[in-house]
Write a structure and sequence with these properties.
9 helices, 5-stranded antiparallel β-sheet, alpha+beta
Length: about 400
């Protein structure tokens, strides 16, 4: 089995190449796995796994960045004004900005226009065990599930899955895309600006750093236009609820230390939380108020045998899909163990491909209400199944950290 290629490289005149991932020695599993969507960098080797201060753009078109970040950037020879004018394209080793407190993502107005969004491609350890894994899930891999054909979500997407959207970002390989979900913020009930996605959609992992120009577009292509129709579509049709830039990003230490563009290393901790701000004014409304919904996150989801059904949502971009339309798969999950010491992952049958990475996995809780329980992380090159991390204490720590960072705002 060959791994799914690294993130989609946009507008390069050719498809991104596929690479064979290292063979994983897992309990009951020897397979080559790979990230199914765009890569995300958080290259921080510090405990938090997150960025420090964020950069935004004020009404007078000047970028506001805290002095401590400016001083850090100067050490790298980075000029913020030049960065906004295109210096962000410099991906040499010294400018990779791997450390969390080097993370910047200043708003560049108009960067994510319809053509650039349409051209984005899909990508082709030791913190103990969650209590729920003590049920017997830990280290267990169930038989490969039967493929479940992804079903197109009915339009308008916002009427059916208002929390879903796409994450766009730039990497050294080109313009990339992932899927993502609007989630609740305990610090701002009913007014969340938090987005859940995969760690590899914001940070490159152990060999890289933070990706650049990270932005979220809720209900992307809400009316389900074809790629041909989108060529003439206005920005308001492609992004009906606006473009929201990530002014803060955080992923797990495990992803930063272990993650890679191919293989399953770090996959059990492949999640990230973004705090976003509108590129243009939103009338003071939060993201949640703008889209009208946000999902709660369940950090104590039951062990796999006790989950009757999970629905995964995303914008698959690798063939036979083109990344422009929203799809879903629903299946009873099985177990996938990538490493004996890591929490066992959920795995479902699903034909979605690269580009769906980071998309939300939703299950109905004991209260009868839907909640986010995972996100798409890995899958085989030849589509047929997807796997996502169980969200436990580490995931909750990332979530609480981002929420707490903006609690007073």
């Amino acid at each position: 089995m060959r791994s799914i290629r690294p993130p989609f490289a946009a507008r390069r005149g050719r498809s991104a190449r596929r690479r064979t991932s290292p063979v994983l020695a897992a309990v009951g599993l020897t397979a080559a796995l790979a990230l199914t969507a765009t890569a995300c960098n958080s290259g921080d080797d510090k405990a938090s796994g997150g960025s420090t201060a964020s950069a935004t753009q004020s009404g007078d078109d000047k970028i506001k960045i805290p002095d401590d970040i400016k001083n850090k950037l100067k050490q790298h020879g980075i000029d913020i004004d030049k960065w906004k004018d295109g210096a962000w394209k410099n991906w040499n080793k010294d400018d990779w900005l791997r450390e969390a407190d080097d993370y910047i993502n200043p708003i560049i107005k108009g960067l994510w226009d319809p053509d650039r969004m349409r051209g984005a491609d899909d990508p082709d350890k030791n913190n103990g065990v969650d209590d729920s894994d003590l049920s017997g899930d830990q280290g267990v891999t169930d038989p490969t599930p039967a493929a479940v054909t992804a079903q197109a979500v009915k339009t308008a997407y916002h009427a059916n899955v208002p929390e879903a959207g796409k994450v766009f970002f730039d990497s050294p390989e080109g313009t990339m895309v992932c899927s993502a979900t609007v989630v609740e913020d305990p610090a701002h009930p009913g007014k969340s600006n938090l987005v859940w996605t995969a760690g590899h959609c914001v940070h490159a992992g152990k060999k890289g750093g933070w990706y650049r120009n990270i932005a979220f577009v809720p209900s992307y292509n809400d009316s389900g236009k074809t790629a041909a129709q989108l060529e003439k579509a206005a920005r308001t049709e492609v992004a009906p609820y606006g473009v929201w830039w990530s002014d803060w990003a955080q992923t797990s230490d495990q992803w930063i230390e272990q993650g890679g563009s191919t293989g399953g290393q770090g996959a059990s901790y492949d999640f990230a939380v973004l705090h976003v701000t509108p590129e243009k004014g939103s009338g003071g409304k939060s993201l949640e108020e703008t889209v009208g919904s946000a999902l709660p996150v369940n950090f104590s989801a039951p062990a796999v045998p006790k989950v009757s059904s999970i629905t995964a949502t995303g914008y698959p971009a690798a063939a036979p899909f083109d990344g422009q339309k929203l799809y879903q798969c629903t299946d009873k999950p099985g177990r996938l163990s990538v490493a004996q010491s890591d929490p066992t992952m959920y795995r479902i049958g699903c034909t979605m491909t690269g580009g769906s990475s980071g998309g939300g996995w939703v299950a109905t809780g004991s209260d009868g209400k839907p909640a986010l329980v995972s996100n798409t992380s890995i899958g085989p090159v030849k589509s047929g199944w997807l796997a996502g991390p169980r969200l436990g204490d580490v995931a909750k720590g990332v979530y609480d950290s981002v929420s707490g960072k903006f609690a007073g705002q």
